Amino acid sequence: MRILVTGGAGFIGSAVVRRLVAAGEHHVVNVDKLTYAGNLASLQPIDNHPNYSFREADIGDDAAMLSILRAENIDAVMNLAAESHVDRSIDGPGAFVETNVVGTFRLLNATLAYWRELSPEQQQAFRFHHISTDEVFGDLPFDSGVFTETTPYNPSSPYSASKAASDHFVRAWHDTYGLPVVLSNCSNNYGPFHFPEKLIPLVILNALAEQELPVYGNGANVRDWLYVDDHAAALELVVTKGAVGESYNIGGRAERTNLQVVEAICDSLDTRRPRASGKRYRELIRFVKDRPGHDRRYAIDPTKIETELGWRATQTFESGIASTIDWYLANEWWWEPIRAEKYSGERLGAKG
To answer: At a CB cut-off of 8 Å and minimum separation 6, what does 200 contact?
Structure first.
């Protein structure tokens, strides 16, 4: 397949691109407008691969996207281009509406125009895969419930509201115009090449810099954690084998409170990179005022993708955290320029 991946220089997008290219079965066209979270250094392992190409473009430019779709003879679109940081959405929701809602709308229009030009056989094989988040479902009680594919939408933040809106537009383009779409909603991702404003990399890097580790509220908010390479494997299955019109929830079956996550990182660093003072990293933890609209708990039920597509997460939370910490310790070349130039490290994000 010739697959166009939007947002392919971002965290999850780059993991998808690296996986698809390394497999050798697909040609991947990476389209990214290289905002603050886009980093082509994340594609360095496959930068010169013959099955990979990069186009700098904005999904909100429907003329440019239609031109790329035609020029590259695309068989499938995987839409990962999105503004994704909850704190940023609270401070400036406009960018989230523009990219996540309007951008998706314009990408859908360009894709529909392209799809209508294809032969009947090509139309039948074509897929538009929209990648979304579990945050569109709102939150759950601490002691019960999980998100399934039929859970009603109930977003709490400008970020999750913008993603919910984009999900609805994708479904509408399928129901109204016949565009063959598949959707997926994932839990919090973590792993290598994760932008340093997000919870896990920020805790790792703040700790290494001997900076405070601020935790919202009392740290009791619960998230389900999914290793990014496991997510990329699931997304490949969805775009190649998912049923048209269906959605698939992708989770790691690894619920942890935010405080448990931070403490696990601290304990691992105590072994891997002890502090010069001999003190424990946990002593850097500080509880700070909670953010507005902070959802209590997310929990994904991945039974559908496990049963229908045969996907399973290969990493436990413990093995994934260990691998992630080891990667950050070994790859200062990647994160140090970002941390120094693009992010001050003042606040913890709660979305992976």
So the answer is: 190, 194, 261, 265, 321, 324, 352
Burial 178-201 (b: 16+ CB within 10 A, else e): ebbbbbbbbbbbbbbbbbbbbbbb
For residue 297, the SS3 value is: strand
What CA–CA distance (Å, rounded) separates 282 from 269?
10
Please indicate whether residue 134 is annotated as part of the active site.
Answer: yes
Number of CB atoms found within 10 A of residue 226's CB: 29
CA distances (Å), origin 191, targets 14, 172, 216, 232, 265:
12, 33, 22, 11, 13
Nearest partner of 96 among 128, 60, 56, 140, judged by Cα: 60
Q: Among residues 52, 114, 159, 328, which one is catalytic?
A: 159
Residue 346 falls in the annotated catalytic set: no
Query: Is residue 159 flagged as an active site residue?
Result: yes
Instruction: Answer whether 190's CB lies under 8 Å from 324's CB.
Output: yes
Q: Which domains does the chain have, with CATH numbers?
A: 2-195+225-253+297-314 (3.40.50.720)
The values of phi and psi at residue 327, to 5°, are -65, -45
Contact (Cβ atoms closer than 8 angstroms) between residue 32 and residue 65 = no
Structure tokens given for 312: 């399973």
Note the helical H segments in 117-272. Answer: 120-125, 158-177, 199-208, 228-241, 258-272
CB atoms within 10 A of CB 55: 18
Nearest Cα residue to 114 out of 79, 160, 154, 62: 62
Mean pLDDT by 10 residues, the chain (352 residues): 98 98 95 94 95 98 98 98 93 97 98 98 98 97 96 97 98 98 98 95 97 96 98 98 98 98 98 98 97 94 98 98 98 94 46 39
Distance CA 207, CA 213 (A): 7
Residue in 32, 83, 135, 197 annotated catalytic: 135
- Active-site residue, selected from the candidate residues 87, 134, 236, 263: 134
